TrEMBL record:
It comes from Paenibacillus typhae. The lineage of its organism: Bacteria, Bacillati, Bacillota, Bacilli, Bacillales. Keywords: Membrane, Transmembrane, Transmembrane helix. The chain crosses the membrane at residues 18-35, 41-63, 84-106, 118-143, 155-180, 200-225. It comes from the Bacteria. This is ABC-2 type transport system permease protein.
């Protein structure tokens, strides 16, 4: 799996498709901390949203960067489309960790906060960023070119999902019941947890994080299952 991840990282960076989403994340990060000082968790909630959108964009660009022929050659070499798909998820997770670290550490190094952040808030911020980033990645898995051939449809669907996810708390007020919290990606819940870290108890924050983690794992699990079914179908 290490060799596969190394290959995918090299292939993605060589294609230069990574530049758009990564550059956008970095530029927005620098712009946000242009003025000082800033509130700790409010700023982290804002950069969390940036990472959520950036990682969704990065996921699409990563999943679409490899040519179909080369993709098939790699799958044949691995003898499993599930291994290939899992390698893609792990590669995107590695890139998400790097971006999450950047988003959390940068304001600490530049003294951008109005007060000391503290270990607890930094830990919560990093975990929240990582979950938001992987949530964006898990959404992008189902919108890659091999699943949604028309890029215009994929882009439109992605934008709709991202907007609905970010406005999830408002939608929950308009549509009472469990439908919105269960079906909609919990980006708004994670943002709210970051914003209210100082007010909420640790179990409340961890509960929100657990909800998001389960959602991410379910999406990734469904994606890997469908990848396996497609692999099975090709061998019939």
């Amino acid at each position: 799996m290490r060799a596969l991840i190394a290959y995918m990282l090299k292939s993605y960076t060589t294609s230069q498709r990574f530049f758009g989403p990564v550059a956008a994340v970095v530029i927005l990060l620098l712009f946000l901390y242009t003025y000082k000082p800033n509130p700790v968790m409010g700023s982290y909630a804002a950069t969390g949203v940036i990472l959520f959108i950036g990682c969704a964009w990065m996921g699409i660009s990563f999943l679409n960067h490899e040519q179909a022929v080369q993709r098939q050659v790699t799958i044949v070499h691995l003898r499993s489309s599930i291994k290939y798909s899992l390698g893609g998820i792990l590669t995107l997770a590695l890139l998400t960790v790097a971006l999450a670290l950047l988003m959390v550490v940068y304001p600490l190094l530049t003294g951008s906060f109005a007060e000391p952040a503290g270990l607890y808030r930094v830990t919560v911020a990093f975990t929240g960023h990582l979950l938001l980033g992987m949530l964006g990645v898990s959404i992008s898995l189902f919108l890659q070119a091999s699943w949604v051939p028309k890029s215009s449809y994929a882009t439109g669907l992605l934008l709709i999902i991202l907007i609905l996810s970010i406005s999830g708390l408002k939608l929950a007020e308009l549509i009472p019941g469990p439908v919105v919290p269960v079906l909609l990606p919990p980006a708004a819940l994670l943002m709210n947890a970051l914003m209210k870290t100082d007010e909420w108890s640790m179990p409340a924050v961890l509960g929100t994080f657990a909800h998001a983690l389960i959602y991410i794992l379910l999406l990734c699990g469904v994606y890997l299952y469908r990848s396996g079914r497609m692999d099975y179908g090709r061998h019939l």
